[in-house]
């Protein structure tokens, strides 16, 4: 794990048992300014996305009251965004400090805690807890590795084996609750409180990855760099053994029960008796011999009276499962050679404990899953010198040596492997930071262009904008809005001024009925024209069309000022009809453009559902194929960073590029999830 550079030598914290608890809490309190700085940088973008969600709801909702309420919230937020921003920061600061203070009274992870009594909680509060809980779980899943690392470091600092996510002061739920509390103080309408909570989505919230990276980096800079291997192993072993869990698919479980409890195709009662000592002794002797090529071959040499029908069923099922694993082309051959040495140990385990077939949480089964999945990253010639390969080799040797001696051995080696992979992913993420930062910048610019386009579209779809002004907004002013949106996180006032200038320009070319309106126009024009010219200078628009635009603008303003004081009812009706026709044409044109978008085919759905950690095989331009892990997905899922192990090779795909590669068979998403579950399902289908 790489250290974060600092401009001065940080204070190194040694977590000795003599260090007072108050001193340790002060170290955690020092993280609050770090977190506030990260949140402050992202708050304007978050508020912009929240406002966007409000406006979309007001435009699309079929419930009049909801549409009215969301429009009111959007309008109020647009006028008072700075006030909400300050409120969120105040609430966050108080919430974080309160959570840190509570750590001193938080029981150790092994202590049973009383569940909160919800009988006196209102329905509104229950709804808010559920919504915040669901939102937090989604964000936690997306940032699980960084959260686990932060939990481990906080646990080391507090001299505990583990800090659970529920006790982490910087967990996503605290941010979501602070935003909701800040809005409740910001807008007094009870109905808007529930509306905002429902609009909070992972894609609307801030990106937690930079926040968690900064917090982990701050602890690293203070010398709090625990041995993730030891801490992770301790955390895994301290957990209570999971209750036997059925496979996710109830139909698969039923098929497993039928297979294991039948003789010659006829169902029989399940036997509680395990394998006989003769069979177990035979399997123990096999470890002294060369690795077996096939379970079926090995078992043919077993004593004839040592096998029951139930044993035969389990052996054949396990043999079919290994056939599937060894036939998986995504697992390198040198890794399969190691897995072949696990056939006899896992057979012995499965015969003694049939939970191997039914529970994905069974440690021997988890070990096989993790070995097969991590082996995908060893698709290179120098695999023998790879630390991961050497670790897998050591694990296999230990399993062969101790599988009949230590019951807890499987849990230990699984914890070792998972902790190693976690540490490797953190190192990989640090190496990929420049590429991830560039992908994030590209997404922000793309989002800025989309938001700028939406800002203009919402205004010109009303049909009240003059034609030459529409062209100006769509071809020139959009560059100004893109610039303003791109710096909105640092300079929110720039976006407010650019939008206001656009609105004032649109207002200036609308008909002015009363003398007071025309007088107001004349008084505002000098400042408005000066501001528009200043913005155009900022984006360096010096083309001849600029002179033409201002000439047309001057003619329109002069015509408005010379209009008669009153218009006939017929003229007003004609103007209203023209506006309505233009608005209708705009909506039809927008729908036509949407119909010509790329269809949502199966490959788009694959891109929408792919998760970090998935492996994808890409075909290079020379025809060679390479397997890469999906290391990072941007907040809006528009950028995907792929990397080889140790990040020797990495690249970025947009969502469209990835869907196109899948569509044109230039890429293939490899099967994800438990290889054992897939192998058992395939075996039972034979």
Could you characterize the architecture of this molecule?
The protein has 686 residues and is mainly alpha-helical. It has 29 helices and seven strands. It has helices at residues 21-29, 31-60, 64-79, 81-102, 123-142, 144-157, 172-186, 190-199, 208-221, 228-238, 250-260, 277-286, 295-300, 309-326, 333-340, 343-352, 355-358, 363-375, 387-402, 409-431, 433-460, 467-486, 492-508, 515-538, 544-562, 569-595, 602-609, 655-663, 675-685, and strands at residues 262-263, 266-267, 615-619, 625-633, 639-643, 650-654, 667-669. A five-stranded antiparallel beta sheet has the order 6-5-4-3-7, with helices on both faces. A hairpin with a 5-residue loop joins strand 3 and strand 4. Helix 14 packs antiparallel against helix 16 (343-352). The chain starts with 20 loop residues before the first helix and ends with a helix.
């Amino acid at each position: 794990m790489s250290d974060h550079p600092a401009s001065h030598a940080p204070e190194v914290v040694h977590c000795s048992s003599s260090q007072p608890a108050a001193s340790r809490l002060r170290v955690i309190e020092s993280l609050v300014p770090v977190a506030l700085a990260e949140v402050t940088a992202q708050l304007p973008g978050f508020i912009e996305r929240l406002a966007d969600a409000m406006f979309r709801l007001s435009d699309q909702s079929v419930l009049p009251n909801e549409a009215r309420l969301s429009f009111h919230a959007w309008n109020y937020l647009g006028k008072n965004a700075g006030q909400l921003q300050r409120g969120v920061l105040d609430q966050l600061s108080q919430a974080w400090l309160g959570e840190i203070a509570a750590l001193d009274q938080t029981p150790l992870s092994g202590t049973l805690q009383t569940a909160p009594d919800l009988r006196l909680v209102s329905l509104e509060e229950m709804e808010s807890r559920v919504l915040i809980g669901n939102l937090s779980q989604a964000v936690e899943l997306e940032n699980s590795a960084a959260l686990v690392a932060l939990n481990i470091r906080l646990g080391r600092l507090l001299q505990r084996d583990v800090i659970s996510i529920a006790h982490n002061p910087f967990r996503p739920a605290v941010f979501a609750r602070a935003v909701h509390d800040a809005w409740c103080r910001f807008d007094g309408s009870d109905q808007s409180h529930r509306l905002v909570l429902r609009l909070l989505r992972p894609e609307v919230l801030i990106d937690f990855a930079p926040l968690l990276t900064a917090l982990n980096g701050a602890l690293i800079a203070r010398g709090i760099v625990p041995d993730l291997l030891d801490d992770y192993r301790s955390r895994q072993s301290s957990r209570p053994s999971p209750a036997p869990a059925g496979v996710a698919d109830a139909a698969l479980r039923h098929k497993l029960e039928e297979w294991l409890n039948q003789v010659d195709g006829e169902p029989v009662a399940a036997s509680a008796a395990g394998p006989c000592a003769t069979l177990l002794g035979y399997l123990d002797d096999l470890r002294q011999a060369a690795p077996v090529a096939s379970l079926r071959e090995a078992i043919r040499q077993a004593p004839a009276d040592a096998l029951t029908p139930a044993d035969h069923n389990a052996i054949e099922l396990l043999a079919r499962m290994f056939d599937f694993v060894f036939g998986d082309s995504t697992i390198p051959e040198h890794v399969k050679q190691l897995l072949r040495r696990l056939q006899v140990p896992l057979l012995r385990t499965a015969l003694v404990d049939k939970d191997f077939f039914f529970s994905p949480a069974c440690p021997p089964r988890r070990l096989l899953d993790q070995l097969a999945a991590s082996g995908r990253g060893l698709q290179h010639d120098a695999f023998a010198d790879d630390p991961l390969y050497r670790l897998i080799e050591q694990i296999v040797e230990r399993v062969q040596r101790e599988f009949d001696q230590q019951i807890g051995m499987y849990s230990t080696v699984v914890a070792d492997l998972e902790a190693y992979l976690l540490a490797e992913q953190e190192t990989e993420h640090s190496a990929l930071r420049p590429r991830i930062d560039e992908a994030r910048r590209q997404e922000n610019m793309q989002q800025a262009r989309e938001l700028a386009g939406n800002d203009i579209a919402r205004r010109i779809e009303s049909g009240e904008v003059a034609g030459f002004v529409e062209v100006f907004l769509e071809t020139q002013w959009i560059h100004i809005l893109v610039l303003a949106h791109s710096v909105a996180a640092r300079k929110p006032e720039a976006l407010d001024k650019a939008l206001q200038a656009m609105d004032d320009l649109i207002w200036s070319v609308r008909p002015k009925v009363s003398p007071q309106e025309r007088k107001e126009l004349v008084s505002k024009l000098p400042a408005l024209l000066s501001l528009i010219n200043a913005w155009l200078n900022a984006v360096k628009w010096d083309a001849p069309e600029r002179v033409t635009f201002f000439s047309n603008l001057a003619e329109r303003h002069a015509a408005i000022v010379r209009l008669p004081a009153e218009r006939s009812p017929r003229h007003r009706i004609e103007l209203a009809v023209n506006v309505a026709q233009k608005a209708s044409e705009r909506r039809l044109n927008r729908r036509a453009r949407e119909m010509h978008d790329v269809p949502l085919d199966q490959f788009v759905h694959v891109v929408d559902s792919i998760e970090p950690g998935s492996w994808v095989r890409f075909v290079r331009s020379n025809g060679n194929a390479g397997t890469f892990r999906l290391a990072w997905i941007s907040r809006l899922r528009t950028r995907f960073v792929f990397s080889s192990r140790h990040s020797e090779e990495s690249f970025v795909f947009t969502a469209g590029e990835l869907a196109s590669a899948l569509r044109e068979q230039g890429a293939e998403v490899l099967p994800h999830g438990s290889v054992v579950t897939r192998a058992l399902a395939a075996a039972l289908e034979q």
